[in-house]
Amino acid sequence: MNVLLSGDTNLDFFIEGFHKFELFGQTLYITTTHICLSIVFVILIVFSIIANRAIKKADPTKPPKGFVNVLELLVEAVDNMLVDTMGPKHGPRFANYIGSLFALLLLCNLSGLLGLRPPTADFGVTFPLALISWFMIQYNGIKHQKLGKLKSLFEPVFLFFPINVISELSTPISMSLRLFGNMFSGTIMMSLIYGLLRVGSVSLAVAWPAALHAYLDVFAGALQAYVFAMLTMVFVSNQIGDET
Which residues sit opposite 20 in a β-bridge? Predict the structure, then answer.
């Protein structure tokens, strides 16, 4: 999506259609989001393969070193976060999902540093991720509460049923919009800054965007990935109840 501001100044939000095709009578496009998300998937897959080989070659009788030590620190950080939030009984069961979710969101949010458009700046990415978490939340609510899950919709009184239903249905919307809004606003801000700096000095064009990338991509990106993963853990933990 290119926005013409004034004169010959073009502002690029990096939203482009590279290829279109017909499916069931509808015209669909392969966009920047699909390409950037594919690159993120490739990076994660390559990292996973390298990590798997490094762990297999490591000697379990000796202290970990180098890359294996970094992997161990990452795994311990995720495990500790799960245990602290969901308890030692149920927390480890969600390590694979929460770890994968956090890694995906973090890399997507940081992809702006590589010159890519963050896939999470597209609501078509954040909403399906929120739906996956929401279905897992509902599944655990039904699994652990059984009929109590349905009963909770009528508490504290029957008249609260519509409000409780809306509250349940609004969870994936609020989670996805929070992530999408933060990342898309950062993309817009960086596009505006780059558009304004086209006529500025070279030193300013390097220093200013670098500082903003440090905040909008690194700090805000890591924070939003953590918040999304934390909300998923908290909502699932609430559905499990006192069993934690």
Answer: 29
